Queue: 2 jobs
Job 1
Amino acid sequence: MRAETLALAFALALIVLGAGGLIWNRISRRRMRSTEGSTPPEYFEALTALLDNRADRALELFLELADRDADTVELHFALGSLFRRKGEIERATRIHQNLIARPALSRTQRNLALKELGEDYMQVGLNDRAERIFSELLDRKRFQAFAARQLVAIYEQQQDWPQAAALRRRLEWITGVSERAVIAQYHCEMVEAALEREEDGAAREALREARRLGPDVVRVRLLVARLSSAEGDIRRAAREYRQLLDRDPEYAEIVLPVFAGLFPAGARSAEFQTLVRRILASSRRARIPVAVAGVKHPQLRIPEVLGAIEMELGKRIDPLMTDEPSLLESHDVRVALMRLLTRWVEQRPLYQCDSCGFSARVLYWHCPGCRSWGSMHLKQDIFPELGSDHVTHGLPRPGL
Ligand SMILES: [Zn+2]
């Protein structure tokens, strides 16, 4: 806590010194060009306050000067940014509103002030005001990509998927970078909302659009399979799941339990066994998700799945077992290990975001940490290092 406070104070001092530097430059320039050569005494008072570590007083004085002097646009921007970073949004807002009200402001400066004001509003959750500002900036070439991204963030937060999709299309047009996969995710959101409301027609319609935009998006395939299964088209559901795992075996953790559920014989069905054999044979990436599915769902533990678990575990347990290789042959040890492993996996975050590192026990399509879409993936270090102290400490003794 103390370290955080010190860091904050240091950051603040740097920012204030930056604002002070700006003032100092302004004073110097003013002296050079002024015929009368007078500098308002408040400049020196503000700088003295800075040197005395009275940052708040210094800021107040700078603000007064900025309010009085029509020739202090840069200072206004610096102060506005400083206040926002300090979390003093009201002050930042006032500065940016003052700027916008100045009739002599250049077009670019006015747009910049609008952008800053929009950010102030976003920070305090005044999304309707921010929306109006960023909608205006959408027509300004220099700010349009930024404005489109801010509007996307606002509509995503409001779960207004059609509007968010419209802005993504606009962004695509501005930047030339495809947004189709994310727009497909929006349609998946609409599918799930429609299913929740039991509006099957709307769900199917949204899913058609999702497929058109992102036929290979994992979530789209999962929904196609889910809807096919709900409509009784088991063959199609099974085909979608197979194609999904052929392409992305890491989703076996999610797919295998539902795939087994398509058939009366469950995991004992020929279809399930064939699928597991195929994905394990085709990709090494399949072993961890298959093993996790097996640990989490006892009904899936056919020999191939158990083999995947043992291989994952074996890699880690071998060094422990060199003295007593027969230990793992013990039924009791195996049962106890499986129990321990189940508990371990149930308590661990299984998924992690590639962009920000956020981790969670379940897969989020929209990362709660950084708001990226489709960025979370199954972690590769799920299984415990049995040699490490905190795990071996909890290992049950044979026979228990
Ligand atoms: Zn993230």
Job 2
Amino acid sequence: MDFKDVMYRRRAVNFFDPEQPVSDALLRELVETAANTPSSFNLQPWNLIVLREPESKGRLEKLAWNQSKVSEAPVVLIVLADRSGWKEGHSVVERNFQEMVRTGAMTVEQREWFLGACGSLYGASEERQQAFACKNTGFFAMSLMLSAKNLGLDTHPMDGFDVEGVRKAFQIPNNFWIPLLLAVGYFRKDKELQPPKWRKSYTDIVVSF
Ligand SMILES: Cc1cc2nc3c(=O)[nH]c(=O)nc-3n(C[C@H](O)[C@H](O)[C@H](O)COP(=O)(O)O)c2cc1C
């Protein structure tokens, strides 16, 4: 699909066809496409929990303002943002450093500098850790939505849910924040899509101080 079409046709769809499944192969393609998302120092501090079973989606729906799309969508992703994904010893941080050395982007001697930079940028306070995790994972979530549209799928992002309730129900460790849930599937054809929402214009967006 043309990129502009993807941008204009992606919508948060309220109704999913429960009869139209999303195959494992398509879900994998979606996630692997979105994995090309850029991130701070390439630290990729995101993970996904994939829900397909009616029982688990039903439990999630109760914690998500009873939004029925949680049950109706064939796949619901709990999007996780890793607040510790900048720390020395974290498996992704260590792999990332090794990859940078392997590809010549950094030398072994730069390890202390690299870890120090990550610590001062992303670990300086709880607020910074939260910002690091959510900023990067937000980009990833947007890639998921655009990639889904490109693959002929529809999505619905949701932050109307009880974060601590979902953490408890799905045993999500405390280093993760949960910036959003993402329903994935196919728009239910017998429903009507709401008219496109208004958007800020160029002059609304550009400011000077
Ligand atoms: C992070 C995020 C959280 C959202 N949470 C909800 C939600 O919990 N429930 C809901 O009905 N819509 C939710 N929305 C959908 C927005 O209302 C919708 O994207 C916006 O009105 C623009 O419409 P469009 O996506 O169809 O262009 C959310 C959107 C985003 C990006």
